[in-house]
Write a structure and sequence with these properties.
The complex is a heterodimer of chains A (353) and B (170). Chain A is of the alpha+beta class and 353 residues long. Chain A has helices at 3-8, 13-16, 47-60, 64-69, 82-90, 96-100, 135-152, 184-188, 192-199, 233-261, 263-279, 285-300, 309-318, 321-328, 334-351, and strands spanning 25-34, 72-76, 105-109, 114-118, 124-131, 157-158, 162-163, 175-182, 204-210, 217-225. In chain A, α5 packs across α14. Classes of the chains: A alpha+beta (353), B mainly alpha (170).
Chain lengths: 353, 170
C-alpha cells in the first residue's frame, strides 16, 4: 500500500460494499479515545514525544496478533500534500482537526475500515468504520485494536473516571458510537424534526453529515451517543441500537406512505434528479448531494434500476472538492470544480449501462 | 450565500482586505477561512467549540468560582493551570485530573450525567480494578444466596471472595 492507494480511490470498503439494512444505514462507526500515561496530551507534548508515540504505535502493528487483524500503514500528515490530506478527511478517515495539529499521523488498515489517528486531541483515536448496519461488528473490531495496543502501551485510566481523555466530554469509556442514516422520506414527510428532537432526550445526539438540522444536505444524518460516562460500552450500544431500529422502522413506513400517497410526485423528483445528474454540465456539491439522495431513494424504492447503490455512495465522496482536485491532479476554482464534478457524475452513471 | 472558495458551505466569514489601497471582499465558510490562514478571524470572532461551551459552564458555576482560589492551581506534571482549562476546556496531561479533581465533580455531572465509569477496564494496567469489580459482583451474589438460604453455594462464593481478596492485596 502507498499513500496514493489510499487517496486516489474514492471507494473505501465502507463506501464500495453494502452491509445489512444498507437501504437506510450507510455506515456504522466506533471511535475510541485513549491516552498514554507518560506523556502530556498532544496539545502540550513535545515533537520528540509525538514521534516516540507514532513509532510505538507502528511497532505494535508488527506483532503476530496485529498481523492477524490486517496489514497497516502509518501515514505522517506532514509528508502528505494539502489535497491528499483533504481527501483523507472527505473519506472520513481523519478529522479536520488532525490537519491543524503538529506531528499528526494516521495508521490505516489496507481496506480503510480501521483508521487510528495519532496525536490528534488525544494520543490515540481509534476508528472502525463499516458499511451498513454493523455496529456490534465495528465495536468488536475496535475492542480488539484497543486490547492490542494495551499490551504495549500504558493507557491512562482511573478507577472512577475511566479512560482519561484531553476533554472531559470523552471520559469514561472514551467511546463514540455512531450510525450514518439516509432518511429522505422522513425529511419529505416533515417528520424528521420531531424525531430528531426526541432523540436528544434519550442521551443521543444527531447532526447532519453535511449541513445542519433539517437542512442536512443529501438527507444524511449521524446519530451518536452523547455521554461516555456512567454507561458501559454494551449499554451505550444497546441504547443506540434501540433508537436506530425505531428510526429505520419510521423511515420504511414513511417511504411506503409517500409511495402510496404521492407516487407520481416521488417518481417525478427521482427521475428529474437522475436526468440532471446524467446530463448536467455544471453542478455544485450541494445540489449533487441532494440529487444523489433522490436517485438513491428511487433505487431503494424500486422506482428506477440500472444504477448501483455503491456508485451513488462513492459519488458522495468523489464529488467533494478535495477528491475532485486529486482526481484532476491540480487545484481548481469553484467553477472548474462544478464542471469537473458534473462530468465525473455523468461518466460514472454511464458506466452502469 | 455560499462560500466563494468551496461553494459548499454557507459563507459565515465576511471580511474586507485592503492591501495597498486595493479593496477585496471575501465571503467564506469557516473551514475555508481557516485554510486561507485568516488568523485574524479567530482573534475577531473567537472560536466556538465544545471546549468553549465547557468553559462557559465553568464560569457560571459559583462553586467552581470559589474553588478557583484554591492554592493548587497548576498541575505539577505538565504546568497546565486551571485558568487555562477554563479557557480551552481541555486538560494538559492525564495527571491534571488528579490535580484539579475537587473542581470537577459538578462539571462532570453536568456534562456526563454521571461521574462514575462503569465500562471497560484495561486488562494489564487495570488489573486490580478488574478484580475489585469482580469482587463486588461476588459479594452481591453471596448476599442473594444467603437470602435464598442456599448455604452450600454461599460457602463456595465465600471461598472465592477470600481468594480474590488475597490476590488484590498481593
Amino acid at each position: 500500500m502507498s499513500v496514493d492507494d489510499f487517496v486516489s480511490h474514492a471507494a473505501s470498503k465502507w463506501l464500495s460494499e453494502d452491509g445489512p439494512e444498507s437501504d437506510i444505514v450507510i455506515s456504522s462507526r466506533i471511535r475510541i479515545a485513549r491516552n498514554v500515561t507518560d506523556q502530556a496530551f498532544p496539545m502540550l507534548s513535545s515533537d520528540e514525544d509525538k514521534n516516540r508515540l507514532i513509532d510505538a504505535v507502528e511497532r505494535a502493528t508488527q506483532s503476530e496478533e496485529a498481523k492477524a487483524i490486517g496489514r497497516f500503514e502509518m501515514l505522517r500528515l506532514e509528508t502528505l500534500s494539502p489535497i491528499d490530506r483533504m481527501v483523507l478527511v472527505e473519506k472520513h478517515l481523519i478529522s479536520p482537526a488532525l490537519i491543524q495539529v503538529q506531528g499528526g499521523a494516521v495508521l490505516l488498515r489496507d481496506d480503510e475500515e480501521i483508521a487510528i489517528m495519532v496525536n490528534e486531541e488525544d494520543h490515540l483515536r481509534m476508528q472502525c468504520l463499516l458499511p451498513g448496519y454493523q455496529l456490534d461488528e465495528a465495536y468488536r473490531l475496535a475492542d480488539r485494536m484497543d486490547d492490542l495496543f494495551e499490551e504495549t502501551l500504558d493507557f491512562a485510566f482511573d478507577e472512577q473516571k475511566g479512560y482519561l481523555t484531553a476533554c472531559p466530554t470523552n471520559l469514561g469509556t472514551g467511546m463514540r458510537a455512531s450510525v450514518m442514516l439516509h432518511l429522505p422520506a422522513l425529511v419529505w414527510t416533515e417528520q424528521i424534526n420531531r424525531i430528531l428532537s426526541a432523540i436528544t432526550h434519550v442521551g443521543l445526539t444527531v447532526r447532519g453529515i453535511y449541513g445542519e438540522g433539517s437542512d442536512a444536505l443529501g438527507n444524511l444524518f449521524q446519530v451518536s451517543n452523547q455521554v461516555t460516562m456512567g454507561q458501559s460500552e454494551e449499554e451505550i450500544l444497546g441504547n443506540l441500537h434501540s433508537v436506530v431500529r425505531q428510526i429505520i422502522e419510521h423511515e420504511r413506513k414513511a417511504r411506503s406512505f409517500i409511495l402510496q400517497e404521492a407516487r407520481t410526485r416521488v417518481e417525478d423528483r427521482v427521475c428529474r434528479s437522475y436526468g440532471i445528474l446524467a446530463y448536467a454540465r455544471q453542478i455544485d456539491s450541494k445540489e449533487s448531494l441532494q440529487r444523489l439522495s433522490d436517485v438513491r431513494l428511487g433505487l431503494d424504492m424500486g422506482i428506477i434500476d440500472g444504477v448501483s447503490a455503491s456508485i451513488l455512495k462513492e459519488l458522495m465522496v468523489a464529488t467533494q472538492p478535495g477528491f475532485l482536485q486529486k482526481h484532476n491532479g491540480h487545484e481548481m476554482g469553484p467553477a472548474e470544480r462544478d464542471a469537473r464534478r458534473a462530468s465525473l457524475i455523468r461518466e460514472r452513471l454511464r458506466q452502469q449501462h | 450565500m455560499l462560500c466563494e472558495e468551496c461553494g459548499k458551505n454557507p459563507a459565515t466569514v465576511h471580511y474586507t482586505e485592503i492591501v495597498q489601497g486595493q479593496k477585496t471582499e471575501y465571503h467564506l465558510c469557516e473551514s475555508c477561512a481557516q485554510e486561507k490562514g485568516v488568523a485574524a478571524y479567530e482573534a475577531l470572532a473567537g472560536p466556538f467549540s465544545i471546549n468553549q461551551l465547557l468553559s462557559g459552564l465553568l464560569n457560571f458555576d459559583p462553586l467552581v468560582k470559589q474553588r478557583m482560589e484554591m492554592p493548587k492551581s497548576e498541575c505539577p506534571n505538565c504546568g497546565f493551570t486551571f485558568q487555562q482549562f477554563k479557557q480551552i476546556g481541555r486538560f494538559g496531561c492525564p495527571q491534571c485530573y488528579e490535580t484539579f479533581d475537587p473542581a470537577l465533580d459538578s462539571l462532570l455531572k453536568k456534562i456526563q450525567s454521571s461521574d462514575q465509569h462503569v465500562g471497560k477496564v484495561p486488562k494489564r494496567s487495570g488489573g486490580v480494578v478488574a478484580l475489585r469489580r469482580q469482587l463486588d459482583d461476588l459479594r452481591q451474589e453471596l448476599q442473594e444466596r444467603i437470602r435464598e438460604e442456599k448455604y452450600e453455594e454461599a460457602a463456595r462464593l465465600r471461598d472465592r471472595i477470600r481468594d480474590l481478596e488475597r490476590q488484590i492485596k498481593a
